[in-house]
Specification:
The chain contains one helix and three strands; from the N terminus they run E-H-E-E. It is an alpha+beta fold and 81 residues long. It has a three-stranded antiparallel sheet with strand order 1-3-2. The longest helix is centred in the middle third of the chain and has 13 residues.
């Protein structure tokens, strides 16, 4: 009634034993958002929904000196192949 996992499936059940895991290199990438406080907050929320970055990973909104404009910065480590 039941087939033994190792028989008849043609699919190996054990992971390959090639040794060490691959080593990846990482680099920092910096994103800057400039706009009104509302647009910056909305963009941070969108990037969170897309699973790109947590809202707490961003800097607090900083005034740019221009009327009605703030800036938020995110530094993120990304894998480079």
């Amino acid at each position: 009634m039941f087939i033994d996992n190792g028989q008849g499936t043609g699919v190996p059940t054990d992971p390959p034993t090639s040794g060490a895991l691959p080593e990846y290199q990482y680099e920092d990438v910096r994103l800057m958002l400039l706009g009104s406080l509302t647009s910056v907050q909305n963009t941070i929320a969108l990037l969170f929904k897309l699973n790109y970055a947590e809202p707490n990973d961003w800097s607090r909104p900083l005034a740019t000196g221009r009327p009605n404009e703030v800036m938020a910065i995110l530094t993120k480590r990304v894998r480079v192949d």
